[in-house]
Amino acid sequence: MSFGDPNNPYGQQPPQAPPQAPYGQQPPVPPQGGQPGYGYPQQGQPQAPQQPYGYPQQQAPGAPQQPYGYPQQQMPGYPGQPGMPGMGMPTGYAGWGSRVGATLIDGLIVGLIPGILYIIAIAVAAPSGPVTPDYSNCALDDTQCRLDAINSASSGSVPALFFVLLALAGLLAFAAGIFILVKEGNTGQTPGKKALGIRTVRETTGQPLGFGMAFVRRLAHFLDSIACYIGYLWPLWDDKGQTFADKVVGSVVVKTQ
Known about the structure:
Layout: H1 96-125, H2 143-157, H3 160-187, H4 191-196, E1 198-202, H5 211-233, H6 244-249, E2 251-255
Antiparallel strand pairs: 1-2
Helix pairs in contact: 1-3, 3-5
């Protein structure tokens, strides 16, 4: 015990100053009122595991799962069919009259130019006068010689332009038919269907048929032709406006306007 310090006669140790924080750092502030501050763990209670940032929140067992993204809306035309960007939303099944009108427009596109070429070919091949076979080199009883003379006179009267026009007309008709099938398969609309605001889609998905199924549908129209073309009239009383070909490939024709 020291009695040398008049200010501390009982020899008690002076209180120690709080430790200084390193230069540039703030000392931690103790929690007030008995409540742990932000960032301080609570003593006596287990800590809940923190989920990493960016991970989906876990749902309670039995809670309904929400699908990823926004829910898809149903089209007003017929249930369960998704929409097609840029093609217009279906508003119902197409009428029989609009389908007939679209077929007439497509037929005009496919057959107009080939038909004109056929007419020109017939006009070119028409003889200007009667053709007389030359029998001068044939004996009276030589039947084969006379037949050769007839064939030679007939073939000589038809110009080569006739056959060229026929071939060109056939190629144009074939190319136009392929173009119609490609447009209907890829977009659901031929030029005629697009003009009248209708298109052909799959009944289950609402998407175009594709070239292959569009070709099969065109072949299946044979079923519509048998029995006095009753299949083409079937959409008049069918609930979905389907022909026999539509029922075979699972397609429907819907409105887009």
